[in-house]
């Protein structure tokens, strides 16, 4: 028995990178499909972290990291599952940055990721359902769950002294997830939700929805929709009929269109959107620019962080075996330890090699909570003098 | 007081918005029904014709605004309308010349013409987007409200607001005028009579010396006018977005079919039936009931159907009408 243990320990050590090797990391994002415009800068973000680690020469005795891209399509769960399966079985990746969208991520995680014991860190899947998924500790995400936004929105609304609201949401996974999680959080905080009504995007007329919302009443209207879509129609209707005068806007509603098309009419309304700020983000954007892509693209910073977390966790565990390093992800992401910003991955590897703790901050101020998802930084905004103004970050 | 509050709530959230929306649908359905009656096919390009006409009107409106010309309290777009109508009519006539005329000459079946109109729809879709883009555009200027919600509350002391927008009044008044003119035109003028004759029996009309090319041209011009008008009024009342006009096609066809394809009066009735049913069936009656029955607080929202189902309502009506009265409420042509 002892011999066997010794043998496996030796085997683990050798596999664990006492010798320089080539470590493959999968990138499973929707390179085709509805979010195809976002994917390139996300993949480049992840590859930037991999290159930085490789170039430092301090990763697992000088190992290099090789990215392998796969197309998750964002909407086709079967295609995403096949892609992840290929990455694991054919390419032999040691970790995956992905998937991109919530539904596809759930499918590939349950069908391939968990059975194969593969660590997956998604930069952009935000469905609350992923918080409670049975993942054997293999799944993490560097973006906040929509449930978190629901909780933040509850805080902000309560701070405005509003105790009863009507909620309308755009009829898709994003809208429904956000509306449900908000309604739950708001009720738990002692507030009253008078109605939760869906609206469809791109419809000719929203009189029916506005009528129902107005009849239900409330001190404010929460619009979990898109400013370029039905959310705009609902807001217009609610303003014109005088049904509501105060509004709470989640991320989909905070945009330039809100200022130009509504301006003075929504003065005094407020909202929030996920947003990273500070030195980490700025450094990342500068690095991205030097590497020739746009680091301000949605979830590009989160993708960088996802890749960095996998690699730092490997270093901390001293092995590329997912079933071992999965337990180190939370350690490297959170305090205690020296704070690590983008561009400091080499330094982080040195610290880890010296047996010290690191607290990875990265490009999106990573702080993993709960089942391993980003707490996220939210920017609270208020519309003052026809302009969207930042109140604070929370 | 409570009775008044209930009345104001119904007016503000059902009657006023549904009437304006109904008028917009009715104008759109009139165009569809006219083409169906005289040219004998369902014109799927109608929604995009509306978008094109509105786009031209918006461009001219911007030009007028840049020159400092305005219509006082009325939206500037009303001044730009004639140009929009002329441009749309020219496009319609050109399309007819290039596309539809051939299929008429070979006496193609109506379903082929309908498919051809789908092709035209995609082309116009693209033309409109190239012309003005895909973004949402608000081009209403002038006075916004005839009765503002907050002023109404302050003025009457009622708990419920009442809003009457200038665009809603303009929509209903314009729709009324245009419909009256159209009926007069069809019933009293020589051209109108020849159009009706052509619609009733093409061969007989040709035998009695009616010039088919003239009838077709006039039909396209009127359809272009109606489409531009409907599109502009809709855009003034809501906003302009090319994509939404494409979606408008669905309720417009529902309205035309419910009323009876080919029947002008049916198109108008159908527009209002669809608009009212969408709004009223999904309305939450809780507030009104609380006002009407003193001392009683309703438990739920008293909503017959949630708003997701509003399209189901108009389609249910459509199916029921087609089952029991295939020619529509006002005896149009059977589809």
Class by helix and strand content of chain A? alpha/beta
Determine the mean pLDDT of chain B.
89
* Run of helices and strands of chain A: HEHEHEHEEHEHEHEHEHEHHHHEHEEEEE
Distance from N terminus to C terminus of chain B (CA atoms, Å) equals 50 Å
Query: What is the name of the CATH architecture of the largest domain in chain A?
Result: 3-Layer(aba) Sandwich
Q: What is the overall pLDDT average of chain A?
A: 88
What do you see in this structure?
The complex is a heterodimer of chains A (394) and B (335). By secondary structure, chain A is α/β, with parallel strands linked by helices. Chain A folds into two domains: 2-145 and 277-374, Response regulator (Rossmann fold, 3-Layer(aba) Sandwich); 147-273 and 377-393, 3-Layer(aba) Sandwich (Rossmann fold). Chain A has 14 helices and 16 strands. In chain A, strand 15 (378-384) and strand 16 (387-393) form a beta hairpin. The termini of chain A are far apart. The mean pLDDT of chain B is 89. Chain B has a single domain (2-324), classed as Orthogonal Bundle (ABC transporter involved in vitamin B12 uptake, BtuC), CATH 1.10.3470. Chain B has a two-stranded antiparallel sheet. Chain B contains 13 helices and two strands, in the order ααααβαβαααααααα. The A-B interface holds A 171, 195, 197-200, 202-205, 207-212, 214-217, 228, 232-233, 236-237, 240-243, 257, 261 and B 9, 12-14, 17-18, 21, 135-136, 138, 148-150, 152-153, 161-163, 165, 234, 238-239, 243-244, 247-248, 251, 275, 278-279, 282-288, 301, 303, 306-308, 310.
């Amino acid at each position: 028995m002892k011999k066997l243990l010794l043998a496996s320990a030796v085997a683990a050590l050798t596999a664990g990178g006492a010798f320089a090797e080539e470590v493959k990391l999968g990138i499973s994002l929707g390179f085709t499909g509805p979010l195809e415009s976002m994917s390139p800068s996300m993949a480049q973000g992840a590859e930037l972290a991999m290159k930085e680690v490789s170039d430092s020469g301090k990763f697992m005795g000088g190992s290099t990291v090789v990215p392998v891209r796969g197309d998750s399509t964002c909407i086709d769960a079967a295609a995403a599952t096949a892609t992840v399966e290929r990455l694991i079985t054919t390419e032999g990746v040691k970790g995956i940055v992905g998937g991109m969208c919530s539904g596809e991520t759930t499918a590939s995680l349950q069908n391939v990721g968990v059975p194969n014991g593969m660590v997956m860190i998604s930069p952009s899947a935000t469905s609350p359902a992923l918080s409670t998924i049975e993942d054997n500790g293999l799944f993490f995400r560097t973006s906040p769950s929509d449930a978190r936004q629901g909780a933040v929105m509850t805080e902000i609304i309560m701070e405005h002294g509003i105790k009863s609201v009507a909620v309308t949401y755009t009829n898709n996974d994003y809208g429904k997830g956000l509306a449900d999680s908000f309604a739950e959080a708001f009720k738990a905080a002692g507030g009253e939700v008078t109605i939760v009504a869906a609206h469809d995007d791109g419809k000719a007329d929203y009189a029916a929805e506005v009528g129902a919302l107005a009849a239900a009443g409330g001190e404010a209207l929460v619009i979990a929709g898109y400013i370029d879509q039905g959310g705009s129609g609902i807001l217009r209707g609610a303003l014109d009929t005088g049904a509501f005068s105060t509004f709470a806007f989640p991320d989909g509603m905070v945009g330039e269109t809100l200022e130009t098309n509504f301006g003075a009419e929504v003065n005094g309304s407020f909202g929030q959107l996920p947003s990273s700020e500070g030195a980490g983000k700025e450094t990342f954007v500068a690095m991205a620019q030097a590497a020739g892509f746009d680091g301000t693209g949605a979830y590009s910073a989160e993708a960088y962080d996802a890749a960095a977390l996998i690699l730092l966790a490997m270093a901390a565990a001293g092995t590329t075996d997912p079933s071992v390093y999965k337990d180190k992800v939370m350690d490297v992401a959170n305090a205690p330890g020296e704070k690590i910003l983008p561009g400091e991955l080499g330094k982080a590897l040195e610290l880890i090699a010296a047996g010290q703790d690191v607290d990875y901050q990265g490009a999106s101020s990573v702080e993993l909570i709960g089942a391993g998802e980003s707490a996220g930084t939210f920017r609270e905004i208020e519309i003052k003098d026809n302009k969207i103004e930042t109140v604070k970050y929370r | 007081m409570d009775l008044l509050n209930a009345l104001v709530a119904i007016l503000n959230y059902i009657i006023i918005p549904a009437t304006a929306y109904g008028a917009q649908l009715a104008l759109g359905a009139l165009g569809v029904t006219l083409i169906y009656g005289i040219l004998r096919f369902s014109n799927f390009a109608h929604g995009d014709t509306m978008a094109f006409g509105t786009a031209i009107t918006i461009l001219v409106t911007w030009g007028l605004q840049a020159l400092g010309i305005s219509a006082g309290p009325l939206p500037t777009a009303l001044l730009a309308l004639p140009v929009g109508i002329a441009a749309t009519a020219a496009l319609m006539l050109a399309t007819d010349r290039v596309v539809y005329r051939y299929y008429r000459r070979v006496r193609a079946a109506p379903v082929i013409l309908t498919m051809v109109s789908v092709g035209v729809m995609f082309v116009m879709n693209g033309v409109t987007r190239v012309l003005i883009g895909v973004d949402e555009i608000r081009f209403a200027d002038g006075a916004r409200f005839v009765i503002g919600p907050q002023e109404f509350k302050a003025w009457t002391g009622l708990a419920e607001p009442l809003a009457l927008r200038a665009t809603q009044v303009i929509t209903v008044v314009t729709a009324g005028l245009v419909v009256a003119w159209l009926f007069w035109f069809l019933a009293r003028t020589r051209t109108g009579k020849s159009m009706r004759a052509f619609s009733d029996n093409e061969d007989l009309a040709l035998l009695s010396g009616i010039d088919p090319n003239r009838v077709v041209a006039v039909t396209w011009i009127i359809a272009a006018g109606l489409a531009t008008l409907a599109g502009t009024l809709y855009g003034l009342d809501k906003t302009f977005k090319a994509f939404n006009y494409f979606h408008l096609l669905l309720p417009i066809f529902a309205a035309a079919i419910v009323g009876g394809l080919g029947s002008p009066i049916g198109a108008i009735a159908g527009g209002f039936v669809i608009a009212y049913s969408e709004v009223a069936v999904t309305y939450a009656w809780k507030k009104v009931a609380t006002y009407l029955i003193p001392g009683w607080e309703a438990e739920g929202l008293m909503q017959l159907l949630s708003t997701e189902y509003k399209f189901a309502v108009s389609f249910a009506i459509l199916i029921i009408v087609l089952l029991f009265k295939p020619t529509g409420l006002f005896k149009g042509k059977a589809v």
